[in-house]
Write the structure tokens for this entry.
Amino acid sequence: MSFPEHRPRRLRRTPAVRRLARETHLVPSQLVLPLFVREGIAEPSPIGSMPGTVQHSVDSLRRAVADAAEQRIGGVMLFGVPEVRDAVGSGADDPAGILNRATEAVVAEVGDALVVQTDLCLDEFTDHGHCGVLRDDGAVDNDATLERYTAMGLAQARAGSAMLGLSGMMDGQVGAVREALDAEGFTDTLILAYSAKYAGAFYGPFREAVDSQLTGDRRSYQLDPGNGREGVREALLDVEEGADVVMVKPALPYLDVLADVKASVDVPVWAYQVSGEYAMVEAAAAHGWIDRRGAIMESLLGIRRAGADAILTYWAVEAARWLRAEL
Ligand code: PBG
């Protein structure tokens, strides 16, 4: 009888050894909470496809962000749901538009206690639901969209947003917005580039959350799910254009892209655990088919392990509470 030469199980024997041997850690400051604010409502309105989340009124948003700050998460990402939409998304750069008004209110409430971030994209504000403006033939016009993005970026910076989340996947968007910000003196405003954002089914529940008007799809601007190297290329271009942080989205189906991007850039890399990822776990848990807390924490840790320095997740505050209780 020969004994095993190697015994990796020694490192797993007791909770104390396992804790000491753990390679990847998750802390509240690595979590960013996406939040929706809807124009014209007085009370929060539940989002059916994302149980546990709501569209906020400006008032309830302010309270939600204060709560998030108390839990010491890293930040919040704000999305606006306007009452009126048009072809060019005029509400996006209107200082009185819902997202800009809400940003001002939130920053007045929490200041720098956490990083207040805003979604910079036209899809919530256009009546056709696309992330840019359209040409006569119906195609998304890249360069005309950049002009809208720079106007939107300036409006958000003026409203007090600390970090602009460029999620529209237009070519040159990071460079265009960076240049416009710098020219107006907003040299401290951060840019989070949704660099490797994939077209697919996992944004389904989000479309209800923002009351999306989209018919068709976003495949002419978001990435093809089969392409990993193209995601890395997009991230490299965004860094070159001045992105402070690059992101991969969705998270779980794209962990390989996340790891490759992490190995390729020297800026922080974040991941967005999107609405479909959230809804899958919530639905299974509601049926009693999965351990909700276990699945949530395992997915977040897996995303960290693959290379994410921070994660946008609808569970940010709840996960932060659990993490704090475990200390
Ligand atoms: C675009 C945007 C989307 C999401 C975040 N920013 C929607 C889309 O690209 O269709 C999706 C987030 C999620 O599904 O949780 N403004």
